[in-house]
Design brief:
The complex is a heterodimer. Chain A is mainly beta. Chain A has two helices and four strands, in the order H-H-E-E-E-E. The radius of gyration of chain A is 16 Å and the shape is elongated. Chain B folds into two domains: about 35 residues; about 200 residues, 2-enoyl-CoA Hydratase, Chain A, domain 1, CATH 3.90.226.10. Chain B has eight helices and ten strands. In chain B, helix 2 runs parallel beside helix 3 and helix 3 packs parallel to helix 5. The chains are: A mainly beta, B alpha/beta. At the A-B interface, helix 2 of A face strand 1 and helix 2 of B. Chain B: This is ATP-dependent protease ClpP protease subunit. Chain B: Pfam families: CLP_protease (PF00574).
Chain lengths: ~70, ~240
């Protein structure tokens, strides 16, 4: 199937609400981190949101690390 | 048992755990802890992927949310330990108003700021790149300059057109005010034909961006750090005289 349209892909195939809800921005050890839920109570670090370059050396907040809350 | 007694065992537990792990470390490695790095006096603001404004993009998009960055910029301005800010850009552009908001915030910081364009600083990335005191671009990085566009449903075409025209004027004014490029040259690049297949605009590569006066110099991390330290030095000298 070919869709020839000026609309964006997300206008035709809207993202499900639960996909948005999977991602959360929370504070871990005083640093703001974007997390993705893997299962109940267990989250994977997607991105660290910090301006302090030293925070990026913190092993426990590297992208891909699993955090349980 | 009083409430106080109940709390006590909980409070002691982490201490005991800490002590035992400390003892273990000393036994195993002969050291108590790895020295921690001192707090950095330079902070970094990375603007990656799309600049996300009023509309939340689906999670598969890599975005920089301006509501995350603006409090960080305020924190950088307020924290006396932070002496300088580096803005790292690798963005395809995005929401014009969010991008302009970020640019204005960065331009109004009292501390020295330096930007580096790595890979791409397209579209609304251009005003963000020029908003700092000094801007750098990697030799291979590019910046696309093009007129403002709008996707989605438009209600009231003439009004929207006028609004967009004003918005574009704001972008042009900001860029020409904060960089050495002339307004005529910037507009010429913006409305150029034949550079982007069947589209208007220009894709400016690193060295050309410097040639046109859009960006101050070619460089990467080393140059940016040197420049920022120089600006921090000047800033502190200025304070001492006062």
């Amino acid at each position: 199937m070919i869709l020839y349209t000026p609309l964006s892909e997300t206008d035709i195939f809207p993202t499900e609400l639960k996909d948005y809800q999977k991602r959360q921005t929370v504070q871990v050890d005083g640093r703001i981190v974007e997390l993705e839920q893997i299962e109940e109570g267990s989250y994977r670090v997607v991105q660290l949101l910090s301006t302090n370059p030293q925070d990026y050396l913190n092993q426990s907040l590297h992208p891909g690390e699993i955090i349980s809350i | 048992m009083t409430d106080k007694d109940k709390q006590n065992p909980d409070q002691q537990n982490p201490d005991q755990q800490n002590q035992s792990s400390l003892v273990q470390k000393i036994q195993q490695l002969g050291q108590s802890s790895v020295p921690t790095a001192p707090d950095s006096n330079i902070h970094i603001l990375s603007i990656i992927g799309q600049v996300e404004g009023h509309v939340q993009l689906p999670p598969q998009n890599k975005t920089t949310k301006y509501e995350h960055l603006i409090p960080q910029i305020v924190a950088v301005e307020q924290n006396p330990k932070i002496e300088g800010l580096i803005v790292l850009l690798n963005t395809v552009g995005g929401d014009v108003e969010a991008g302009l908001a970020l640019s204005e915030m960065i331009a109004s910081i009292s501390k020295p700021t330096v930007s580096i364009v790595l890979g791409g600083g397209h579209s609304i990335g251009v005003p963000i790149a020029v908003s700092t005191n000094h801007s750098f671009i990697a030799p291979t990085a590019t910046m696309t300059i093009h007129p403002i566009r709008l996707t989605g449903l438009v209600i009231g075409v003439p009004q929207t057109f006028e609004y967009l025209d004003k918005m574009q004027e704001r972008v042009i004014q900001f860029v020409t005010k904060h960089s050495n490029i002339k307004e005529e040259k910037f507009k010429e690049l913006m409305f150029e034909k034949g550079n982007l297949t069947r589209d208007i605009g220009t894709n400016v590569v690193g060295t050309d961006a410097v040639k046109y006066g859009l960006i101050d110099a070619i460089g990467g991390v080393k140059e940016a750090m040197e420049k920022l330290n120089e600006l921090i030095g000047q800033n502190q000298d200025g304070k001492m005289i006062q």
